[in-house]
Amino acid sequence: MKSTNITWHDSKVTKEARQQQKGHKSPVLWFTGLSGSGKSTLSVEVEKALYEHGVHSYRLDGDNVRHGLNKNLGFSPEDRKENIRRIGEVANLMSDAGLVTLTAFISPYREDRDAVRELLGEQEFVEVFVKCSLDEAEKRDPKGLYKKARAGEISGFTGIDAPYEEPDSPELVVETDKLSLEESVESVINYLKENGHIE
């Protein structure tokens, strides 16, 4: 059932005022890539680096969000779409609050990522393609999911029997199978500085 009889209530404090108070912009860094590519690891370290720079931020991680907000969703294409839609809406609220928001989701479908881009706008959506070969991601296999997928214990697993659609023109590509973690973090922080998101 859809909501009816609702009215949007504006605040007297604008996003721009919140950004000014915090001393930085509030983009959403959308980390996308295969399972095992390093999205969560990288987002954790970028969040720490931002904190050390005095930047107000918050991280939304795929597994963490499925423990609460999205615990009623599975991994069908329809549920994946709804998962990303909800995260986009939450990230939009956090951006409005003046926070740099980091999201770490496989988000395998371009259409879903583009819908979030449209919601947030070009100035706020920073697509970070965490690029890693399938071979390397499968070697890492931190959760043992590739092994289960290869054994037929998991179906619809991205990169094995479900697609991953690489970004066409992401704002930033971080090749985690070629860069160290420190270099990867530095590339994200440098991007934010060079594009006027943080000082």
Output the strand order for the largest sheet. 2-3-1-4-5
Question: What is the rounded distance between the termini?
Answer: 45 Å
Number of helices: 8
Here the CATH topology equals Rossmann fold
Number of self-contained structural domains: 1
Derived structural class: alpha/beta
Biggest pleated-sheet summary: 5 strands, parallel
Element order: H for helix, E for strand? HEHEHHEHEHHEH
Molecular structure report:
The protein has 199 residues and is α/β, with parallel strands linked by helices. The protein has helices spanning 15-22, 39-52, 62-65, 77-96, 110-120, 134-140, 145-150, 181-194, and strands at residues 28-32, 57-61, 100-104, 125-131, 172-175. The chain has a five-stranded parallel sheet, sandwiched between helices. The radius of gyration is 17 Å and the shape is globular.
Could you write a compact summary of the structure shown?
By secondary structure, the protein is an alpha/beta fold.
SSE layout:
Layout: H1 15-22, E1 28-32, H2 39-52, E2 57-61, H3 62-65, H4 77-96, E3 100-104, H5 110-120, E4 125-131, H6 134-140, H7 145-150, E5 172-175, H8 181-194
Parallel strand pairs: 1-3, 1-4, 2-3, 4-5
Helix pairs in contact: 2-8, 4-5
Primary descriptors:
199 residues; five-stranded parallel β-sheet; 8 helices; 42% helix; globular
